[in-house]
Amino acid sequence: MTKVSVSLLFTFFSLVLSARAAWASETIDLVIIETLPVPIVTESRVEFEKELARIMPDHELNITIYNAEGSEIRAKAILKELADKPAPDLIVSAATLATRALNASDDFLDVPKLFMVVSAPVEEGIVPAIGAISKRNMTGESHVLDAKVKLDMLEGVLKASKPDTPLTIGLVHSTYPSSSNLVNQLLTIGGQYKNINLVPISTPYLEGDAGLLEMTDRITDILQEKAIELDGYWLSSGPLAVASNLVKKVKKETGLLPLFAESIAAVKEGALIGVVSEPSSIGKSAARKAKLILEKKSAMEIPVVKMDTYSVAVNVSTAIQLQLPIPSSYLKLSKEHVYQ
């Protein structure tokens, strides 16, 4: 009897160990489609991969990365190619155009999908409202603050200087979806603010590195024409927010500085204030969401939400130059992101 019991126990533990070994060696196939290779997208994706490997140490992650090179058409072509291959366990889209193409595709309705670095999931039709659930097996987090919060912050700075008239601020943006969506939100409520007068300044979105350079030149030319009418500008989200040396170039050609920027790099270069989610926060938060999706094998029951971690940045040299005192509460929030 004892021999039989020992034998049964040995068999039982062998099965348990075999099951654990199989679980530990389970491969998870992930596809990541990036809209374009700009820092916020690339760095968020790198942080996502690192964090997912850290929180899922017993799994082998097989990650395939595609880049749509700033083109929705290219993103759709990538998805068409993927439709002819075995379905991955999860598809991750980074930034708006790749996410738009993925959400519109009927080839992956049974595959869970996760987006990151998307500012306006409601305007993109992913969900009817923040906190709602997508009907297309997709979830994710918006990485930007509400327009009202940002306008409140800028109004707080301007009010402290007690200007005689509202400051006229050019809303610099391209027709890239996240950029134009944010500007529309700002314009809708901008009239509620006593010290802010918003004026849209736009350029068509152009794909690729050459396109970004041309957009930078066009915006600089427009600002140069309107410089006498403006007190500063607002650098909206999208490719222009991460364009190299845009702030320096505009300042050199026009003397204008951003009063608000959707990029910490722009605050370093001279923008007065900015509030953003950093790539490390975006990537890590998306990884935790991916783990939950993989455990559920679905994104159907996971609502689309806004991120809850943001960084405030201020440039004290710009504040002094423009004679706009930064409230002490903003400096406390900025912590390591106070520049001069």
UniProtKB/TrEMBL annotation:
User: What organism, scientifically named, is this protein from?
Assistant: Alteromonas mediterranea
Under the heading InterPro entries, the entry gives: ABC_transpt-TYRBP-like
Is Transmembrane a UniProt keyword of this protein? Answer: no
Q: Report keywords, A-Z.
A: Signal
What's the protein name? Answer: ABC transporter substrate-binding protein
Which PANTHER family does this one have?
ABC TRANSPORTER, SUBSTRATE-BINDING LIPOPROTEIN, ABC TRANSPORTER, SUBSTRATE-BINDING LIPOPROTEIN-RELATED
Q: Which residues form the signal peptide?
A: 1-21
Keyword Transcription in record: no
Phylogenetic lineage: Bacteria, Pseudomonadati, Pseudomonadota, Gammaproteobacteria, Alteromonadales
